[in-house]
């Protein structure tokens, strides 16, 4: 863990969500508007509209039936969006306002799989199964049904002159339709299951092999590369180079002709934005991260984050712009990450039993500079040396730990290593536990190693020889995380038994146990110069603990599933979490902000209290009562009412003051009366205010007060009790008066006269 900045020693009290990276695309169609500024994509029951420049979701549109969206299309003039749901309902949107302008029911027997507008925005073509229907948007009538495909139709697109339409399908053919005769003009076999096809402008584009006039189209399919075809000859004139790695199959592509951009989508929900004429990659978006398994800050200023999800690919996000770089190299799911001290170099390991070292340059570009293999099972945990970029340690399901030395001269940032990444060899291998090793941690001085295992123990080892120094026993279930304190001779462990324990490195004794999670604790990290802990669990919670008093200071509840990833920034002012709910959350330490707000609030209260005292002294009761209500302090309001009732003309003053209040102030006053009325010492003030309101406010107005029913229900029983008490007191007083008048006092003795 990176050292906190000097001077950061105060206890933290709270974190707030500063940023949330969550899924915006879960498969299906994507489309760019003609300007290339907005990206439309399906996310379950919604169509999300993204700003291409920032990657932010500007708007989400959801149909009233709340069914999954199966298809949508944006009109060429960028004004109208039509969506189709699994319930066969078609909705026309004015998407910029987020309002529905028209609804109608499709007459397909299956959900609409794809749709497209013609350039005039008067025709809409829809496809379900193998049939294509052409609709008039003016009178909502079906003009034609086109049948020629033998498998599901995956995409439709119109030519600029409205004379031609192109359809693609999983039957490995593309069909060019004549819209005048509504007949198939040409069938082009493309030898792959095509998920999307787009018509290219009828102009020469030598970079894409388009050298002659005539109809050309581009296809995207299960072979994972974009290909350009000449319709007349049925020949493939350009093939994009296929990049290695799983999940590269293409599921969609779309062209924004005016902006000169082409967007393609891979099977693992990554969106790739190209310059249309050269197919040069411009930008990448990660639409869906599935289960997030680990997260780390990158860069000396923590400007980037790297994410390992349920995928062989790593995703690197620049926090300021949301720009994403997708890193390929691993051949199976990446399980864990760690970063070297300077922030440029980081390491990954995974189910493919390998490790990889990556380097980021100052432009944010990441390349793989080294790799190593040797474990015989999944590598589930990795930790980098803390002082210098000299070694790293891995732990595996094969129950061994390996120590890997880094060569002094790794390839420089941004350069492509000659002959591929440097091959690493394990310097030492040690069988450490009898079950899976879930966590390894290197001490701040690089001389100690801690391991945590499914066998319920943690162990301490001397580096670099991997000599066993001691065992930490006490957890009732397997350990998920071990972490050294940055300041003290202490080790923290997180376990599936729902606890976090602190251990002394000298005698291996348990110093403290923190209980609070309802399920497994998956990660633990030291913050506030080693005086506090952050823990994350499979209950979806992140907890902040103060070590000195074992207190859970705050529970952060923003995830909906297991929080596997937890990392703290080097300045100790941010935390990063990633969870099985596909969300990555950047948390900001708001302790100082909240303390400043609390101080400002206290100072404001002092000023207002002084102002209130002055107003009461000057007998400016209306201002005083309004100020007391705004402070939301029932006792202060009661003091003002008591001050008014002490006035010789109390009845008139109270009426005049209460009736001049605003309605919201009267509602608050009625609410305060409920509290006062429960106490016999203050019930007179409550009844006096109630009397004013009941005498002068119309019943309809009183019944319109917010929460009036609850207030009346609370007032009635206590008012009845006060009335009975007063009745008994009156009876007793009347009886006392009767006794006084009927008492016969004996004559007073006469003093003897002086002799």
TrEMBL record:
CDD domains: WD40. Pfam families: Utp13, WD40. InterPro entries: Pentaxin_CS, Quinoprotein_ADH-like_sf, Utp13_C, WD40/YVTN_repeat-like_dom_sf, WD40_PAC1, WD40_repeat_CS, WD40_repeat_dom_sf, WD40_rpt. GO terms for cellular component: 90S preribosome; small-subunit processome. Keywords: Acetylation, Isopeptide bond, Nucleus, Repeat, Ubl conjugation, WD repeat. GO terms for molecular function: U3 snoRNA binding. GO terms for biological process: endonucleolytic cleavage in 5'-ETS of tricistronic rRNA transcript (SSU-rRNA, 5.8S rRNA, LSU-rRNA); endonucleolytic cleavage to generate mature 5'-end of SSU-rRNA from (SSU-rRNA, 5.8S rRNA, LSU-rRNA). Its main location: nucleus. WD repeats lie at residues 105-145, 146-187, 327-368, 372-406, 430-461, 472-513, 514-555. Signal peptide: none annotated. Residues 609-743 form the U3 small nucleolar RNA-associated protein 13 C-terminal domain. It is found in: Nucleus, Nucleolus. PANTHER family: TRANSDUCIN BETA-LIKE 3, TRANSDUCIN BETA-LIKE PROTEIN 3. Part of the small subunit (SSU) processome, composed of more than 70 proteins and the RNA chaperone small nucleolar RNA (snoRNA) U3. Part of the small subunit (SSU) processome, first precursor of the small eukaryotic ribosomal subunit. During the assembly of the SSU processome in the nucleolus, many ribosome biogenesis factors, an RNA chaperone and ribosomal proteins associate with the nascent pre-rRNA and work in concert to generate RNA folding, modifications, rearrangements and cleavage as well as targeted degradation of pre-ribosomal RNA by the RNA exosome. This is Transducin beta-like protein 3. The gene is TBL3.
């Amino acid at each position: 863990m990176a050292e906190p900045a000097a001077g950061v020693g105060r206890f933290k009290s709270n974190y707030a969500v500063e940023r949330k990276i969550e899924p915006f695309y879960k498969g299906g169609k994507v489309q760019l508007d003609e300007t290339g500024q907005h990206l439309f994509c399906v996310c379950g029951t919604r169509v999300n509209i993204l700003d291409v420049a920032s990657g932010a979701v500007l708007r989400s549109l959801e149909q009233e039936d709340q069914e999954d969206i199966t298809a949508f299309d944006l009109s060429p003039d960028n004004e109208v969006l039509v969506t189709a749901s699994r319930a066969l309902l078609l909705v026309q949107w004015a998407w910029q306002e987020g309002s529905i302008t028209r609804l109608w029911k499709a007459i397909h027997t299956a959900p609409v799989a794809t749709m497209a507008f013609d350039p005039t925005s008067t025709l809409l073509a829809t496809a379900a199964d193998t049939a294509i229907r052409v609709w008039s948007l003016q009178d909502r009538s079906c003009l034609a049904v086109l049948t020629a495909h033998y498998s599901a139709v995956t995409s439709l697109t119109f030519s600029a002159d409205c004379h031609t339409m192109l359809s693609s399908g999983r039957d490995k053919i593309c069909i060019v339709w004549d819209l005048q005769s509504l007949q198939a003009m040409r069938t082009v076999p493309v030898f792959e299951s095509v998920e999307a096809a787009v018509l290219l402008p009828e102009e020469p584009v030598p970079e894409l092999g388009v050298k002659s006039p005539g109809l050309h189209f581009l296809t995207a399919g299960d072979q994972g590369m974009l290909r350009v075809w000449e319709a007349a000859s049925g020949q493939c004139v350009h093939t994009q180079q296929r990049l290695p790695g799983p999940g590269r199959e293409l599921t969609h592509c779309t062209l924004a002709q005016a902006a000169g951009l082409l967007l393609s989508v891979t099977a693992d929900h990554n969106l790739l934005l190209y310059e249309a004429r050269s197919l040069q990659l411009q930008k990448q978006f990660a639409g869906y991260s599935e289960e997030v398994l680990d997260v780390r800050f990158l860069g000396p200023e923590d400007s980037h984050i790297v994410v390992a999800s349920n995928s062989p690919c790593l995703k690197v996000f620049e926090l300021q712009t949301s720009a994403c770089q997708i890193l390929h190299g691993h051949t199976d799911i990446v399980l864990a990450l760690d970063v070297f001290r300077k922030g440029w170099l980081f390491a990954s390991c995974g189910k493919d039993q390998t490790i990889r070292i990556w380097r980021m340059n100052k432009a944010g570009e990441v390349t793989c500079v080294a790799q190593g293999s040797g474990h015989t099972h999944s590598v589930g945990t990795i930790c980098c040396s803390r002082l210098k970029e000299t070694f790293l340690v891995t732990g595996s399901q094969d129950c061994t730990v390996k120590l890997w030395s880094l060569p002094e001269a790794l390839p420089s940032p941004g350069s492509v290593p000659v002959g591929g990444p440097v091959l690493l060899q394990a310097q030492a291998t040690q069988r450490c536990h009898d079950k899976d090793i879930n966590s390894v941690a290197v001490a701040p001085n690089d001389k100690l190693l801690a391991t945590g295992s499914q066998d319920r123990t943690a162990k301490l080892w001397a580096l670099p020889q991997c000599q066993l120094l001691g065992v930490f026993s006490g957890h009732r279930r397997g350990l998920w995380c071990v972490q050294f304190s940055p300041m003290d001779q202490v080790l923290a462990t997180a376990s599936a038994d729902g606890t976090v324990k602190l251990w002394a490195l000298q005698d291996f004794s348990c110093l403290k146990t923190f209980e609070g999670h309802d399920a497994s604790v998956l990660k633990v990290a030291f913050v506030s110069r080693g005086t506090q802990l952050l823990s994350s669990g499979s209950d979806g919670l992140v907890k902040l603990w103060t070590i000195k008093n074992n207190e859970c200071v705050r529970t952060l509840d923003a995830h909906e599933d297991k929080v596997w990833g937890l990392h703290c920034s080097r300045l100790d002012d941010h935390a990063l979490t990633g969870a099985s709910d596909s969300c990555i959350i950047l948390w900001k330490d708001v302790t100082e902000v909240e303390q400043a707000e609390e101080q400002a609030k206290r100072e404001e209260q002092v000023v207002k209290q002084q102002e209130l005292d002055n107003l009461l002294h000057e007998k400016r009761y209306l201002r005083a009562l309004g100020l007391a209500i705004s402070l939301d302090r029932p006792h202060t309001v009661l003091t003002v009412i008591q001050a008014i009732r002490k006035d010789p003309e109390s009845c008139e003053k109270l009426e005049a003051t209460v009736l001049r209040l605003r309605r919201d102030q009267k509602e608050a006053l009625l609410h305060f009366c409920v509290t006062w009325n429960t106490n016999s010492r203050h019930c007179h003030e409550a009844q006096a205010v109630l009397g004013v309101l009941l005498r002068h406010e119309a019943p309809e107005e009183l019944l319109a007060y917010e929460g009036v029913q609850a207030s009346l229900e609370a007032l009635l029983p206590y008012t009845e009790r006060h009335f009975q008490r007063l009745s008994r007191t009156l009876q007793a007083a009347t009886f006392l008066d009767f006794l006084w008048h009927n008492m016969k006092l004996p004559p007073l003795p006469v003093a003897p006269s002086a002799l």
